[in-house]
Amino acid sequence: MIEIVETDAGTARITWHRATEPRAVLALSHGAGGGIEARDLRAIAGVLPGHGVSVALVEQPWRVAGKKVAPAPKTLDTGWRGIWPALAGMELPVISGGRSAGARVACRTARELGARAVLALSFPLHPPGRPEKSRADELLGTGVPTLVVQGGNDPFGGPAEFPEGDFRIIEVPYGDHGFAIPKRAGIGQERALEVITDGVVEWTASLV
């Protein structure tokens, strides 16, 4: 089911993958360079409803409008705030999440919006090759239970680069920023996606 939501940043779109008897909602948005067709988002949306968690894949207004470049972080946050009433209106705990830029949005707004927790997929800890430009403060400031799922070879920050903090981290071996696995790796692409979905299923079950 697709739901159109008007926000102060423009028209957003939610694609719902509903659980039969949901006990929570997981809202996931895309990154700055792609949409909700990302492999990790599709995998989670395919698995979580079978475990009692409805998944809302959120397309930010810039993406719905067909633009190729994401706007400033402040505008992304505005779009996320605008879709929140459609999620919270179901009167279920809402887990805020996303991949890359979407993960940053979820981290920045979690406390303000009353999110139950944050799922950060491929959190861009720093620009590639620029570890001094750390965004760790966004991750450390969520104020709610937080799970990071990070590729072992992510140029935006590998698991070993993350600071200690009040969050959990799951490493996807050999994965890049899009969780793509090279053919020479010891695990295949499907197994890598299972690492993601198994970890998210276990984590969400511990929350609600």
Automatic annotation (TrEMBL):
Sorted UniProt keywords: Hydrolase
Signal peptide limits: none
InterPro entries: AB_hydrolase_fold (IPR029058), KANL3/Tex30_Abhydrolase (IPR046879), NSL3/Tex30 (IPR026555)
Protein name per the record: Hydrolase
Any one GO MF annotation of this record: hydrolase activity
Pfam families: Abhydrolase_11
SUPFAM superfamilies named among the record's database cross-references: alpha/beta-Hydrolases
Residue intervals of the KANL3/Tex30 alpha/beta hydrolase-like domain: 23-203
